[in-house]
Structures are given as structure tokens and as C-alpha cells.
Amino acid sequence: MQAGRSRYDTNALTVGLTLPWQWKRELWGGELHGYWDLYASRWTYDAVPGGHGSNTLIGLTPTLRLLPDGPGSRWFAEAGIGATVARHRYHTPGREFSTRFNFASHLGVGLRLGAQQRHELLLRLQHVSNAGIKHPNPGANFLQLRYALHF
After folding, report:
1. How confident is the model at residue 9 (pLDDT cuts 50, 70, 90)?
2. Residue 7, class by beta-carbon neighbours within 10 Å (0-12 exposed, 13-18 middle, 19+ buried)?
3. How far apart are CA 75 and CA 141, in angstroms?
């Protein structure tokens, strides 16, 4: 579960699941591994020409995670670049996307909690835009807080 907000008064609530890769590498004395992040997100915002708007997105992001002290590390950093498809084009008084298809990239730092480290809190910055496929391409930046529970 994840909640986020952009500086253009857009709120995002997200639910999803992660599918870990079998791939792992040692890096800088720590462990690097990855996962697929599959999610659905609901954006709410002030709409044009007035009133409130909302949009639903689905996304898939391959993500790399670095555990700096190895597999037992409580702290981690991660980065990912993936794709989203929205039900409608995003359009607010301050932002207008020209496509429903966009890329989503993020950087974050997090903490694994609990005796078995099954709980996670992650603070991340996400950028969503179409990477110049079509203009206008203003993009949107979100500050997000994510809670994850590993089964």
C-alpha cells in the first residue's frame, strides 16, 4: 500500500504486489537484487474546467534494491523504471499529459522491520512522464510513503 502527493495537488493511493527475482549479486559489500512491482493507482485532483477529477493507472516497474550490509540489512535503497497506462489523460489546471501511456521512475530509501523483516517502510520520489514521445510532456513528481508486508 502506498500514498503519495505531487506539488500540483494530486493525491495518489496505490495497491500492488511485488514478485521477487531469483537473481542476486554482491555489490559494494552488500547485496543487489530485484523484483517486479505490479500496481494499480488512483489519482485524485482538481480537474479542468473545474470540479474534481480522478484517474486510474496500472503499472509495472522492474526495480533494483541494494541492501548495503548484505541480506540481513535493515536499511535499503532502490531504483526502478517502468511503464504505466492510465484510463484517461491526466489534466489539471497546472499539468496536462498528452498520452495515457507514461513511464514511471523512482528512487527511494527504506527500512525493514520486525523480527523476520517482513514489514517495510519506504520513502520514495517518483517521476511520471511520457519521456518526450508526444508534447506537451510536463511530467509529475510524487513524494510517496509505502508500507509493504512480505508473505
Report:
1. confident
2. exposed
3. 24
Cα–Cα distance for residue pair 93/81, rounded to 1 Å: 27
Quote the pTM value: 0.91
100-143: pLDDT as tens digits: 999 999 999 999 999 899 999 999 999 999 999 999 889 999 99
Which residues, at least 6 apart from 125, have a Cβ–Cβ distance to it below 8 Å? 106, 107, 108, 141, 142, 143, 144
**What sign for the dihedral angle of Cα 24, 35, 76, 149?**
negative
Residue spans of beta strands (DSSP E) within the chain: 2-6, 11-27, 30-46, 52-67, 75-86, 101-113, 119-129, 140-149
Cα–Cα distances in angstroms (integers) from residue 98 to residues 10, 111, 115, in the given order: 17, 36, 47
User: DSSP 3-state assignment of 68?
Assistant: coil
Single-letter code of the amino acid located at 11: N
